[in-house]
Amino acid sequence: MIAIDEQRLLGRIHELGAVGRDGEGRLIRLAASDADRQGRDLFVGWLRQAGLDVAIDRIGNIFGIWQTPDNAGQAPVFIGSHIDTVIDAGIYDGCYGVLAGLEVIETLKASGLVPSRPLAVAAFTNEEGVRFSPDMMGSLVHAGGMGVEAALAAIGTDGKTLGAELARIGYAGEYEPGFLKPHVYVELHIEQGPVLEREGIPIGAVENLQGISWQRVTLDGVANHAGTTPMSMRRDAGYAAARVATFLHDQAAASNSPTVATIGTMRFEPNAINVIPSRAVFTVDLRDPDELRLQAHEAALSAFLEQVAAEGIAVTVERLARFEPVVFDRQVVELIERAARKRGLASRRMTSGAGHDAQMMARIAPAAMIFVPSAGGISHNPREHTEDAELVAGANVLLDVVAELVGTEGRGNG
Ligand code: GLV
Ligand code: MN
Ligand code: MN
Predict the structure, then answer these.
(1) What does the pLDDT read at residue 407?
(2) What is the rounded average pLDDT for all residues in the chain?
(3) N vs C: which end of the chain shows fewer Cβ within 10 Å?
(4) What is the Cα–Cα distance from 50 to 238, expressed in whole angstroms?
(5) Averaged over 187-206, what is the pLDDT?
(6) CATH numbers and ranges of domains, the chain
(7) Is 357 in the pocket of ligand 1 (CB under 6 A)?
(8) Ligand 1 pocket check for 354: Cβ under 6 Å
(9) How many whole angstroms from its chain centre is CA 270?
(10) How far is it, in rounded angstroms, from Cα 414 to Cα 412?
(11) What is the mean pLDDT of residues 285-294?
């Protein structure tokens, strides 16, 4: 059995993880930032070293392609994920899948395999969606779910547009998004949840992914003196926001279902200790594997906001992202299970709680995902951790899945 080069993969994960540290050592590589440029440059250097063709499209997605004269023009087996990060991130989210994809292609190239199709590894732009909405943007555009002009016009949390920022960092490429149509898409990722670790299972064969609803809510009341305004005479946007937060949390917690609800950002105006807030702006992240239940939670939130409005607070809601749940391709899921079994690794089917580029690629090709355990189920946090042996095991399962998909004829020195 051929195997990936463990030290090369692990070394690259750590090298990329050192890029984009702020003065306090926090990892922050937001999409199309200077730090993102440094991470991209490092990755592109590795693609070139591996002898892959490098292509960058207009939304900044980076592709490393291995094709031979015999298979050129055929739809590639496609591996992908992202190398942008959240604020104060861990080093594995996204990066593991991209670097394992490169590792798998390098390993197969060196093995003497004569692939029946090209192989491609992609690093998609702005998967995290922290700076620009929606999340999974690069893969969404690649899959034709959003026009490239609209995506480039997206305004970031710092007021800059994605298009201008990509041009500034030198990653506004020439290729039209979607130029490379996948034959099959596979994504390897850390679980980012507690299931695999709790059950002592090294491999997740991800069969579906929950729906995601992102909204930004602005509540407008009236600023007034905190000391002189009787409680009965207030139009307090801060208090209204706190009530919405409590409502959302309690509704999800009481639902006896996998529904999850998060208010991850909130700001007040004027934001002063002795002034009743005139304005509160916050984001809502609602997720559920069941589309109808997700709709019901969205409707309940709307009804609660109407009640808040009836009490004298003006309510404005903007939709930032909305993706329905996705069911992955059964044959690819079964292929992952078989590959794990052949390596002597237990696997279980599972649902992804996080959003992934695979959910966009599933619109245009059979797709599925492989998960490896996350220590303590922690992610979007610098304490995110997966054991080296687990990372290597996942990459070898990806290797076998991809080898199977591109055909195994002519394997030489493996
Ligand atoms: C992506 O990390 C997400 O928010 O699920
Ligand atoms: Mn990710
Ligand atoms: Mn993430």
Answers:
(1) 82
(2) 97
(3) N
(4) 54
(5) 98
(6) 6-208+326-407 (3.40.630.10), 211-323 (3.30.70.360)
(7) no
(8) yes
(9) 33
(10) 6
(11) 98
